[in-house]
DUF3597 domain-containing protein (Erythrobacter crassostreae), 119 residues
Amino acid sequence: MGIFSSIKGAIFGSDEEEKTEAKPTATTGPKERAAITTEEVEQRIANIPGADGLNWKSSIVDLMKLVKIDPSYENRKELAQEMGNASYSGSAEDNIKLHADVMAAIGKAGGIVPDDMKG
C-alpha cells in the first residue's frame, strides 16, 4: 500500500470497503464515485480526532501526522513521487504543492484511490 492509499484510507476507510463499494454489477458495470470538492474532503478530515490541534489544511506534515503517517522527509518524498513529482526536495514550496496535490487527488477520485496510485 502506498502512502497516498494510507492517507486516503485514514480519511475515507479501508481499501476493502472501497472494493465493496466499487464492485461492478452485471447491468451497470463498475461503480464509480463522482469527484468531490476540496471542501468535502476537508469536512471529512475535520472529523478526525485531533484535527483541531493541527494545521492540516495547509501543512502536508500536519496532515500526515493527523492520519498517523510518519511525516519524515523520506515518506514525503515517496508521496511526492506517487503524485508525479520526481524532483521533490523538501522545500516549503514543494510541501505546499504536495499538500495541494494530495487534496486534489483525493477529491478527484471521490475518495477512491485510483489504481495507478496504489503502492
Q: What stands out?
A: Residues 3-117 form one domain. The chain is about 50% helix and 0% strand.
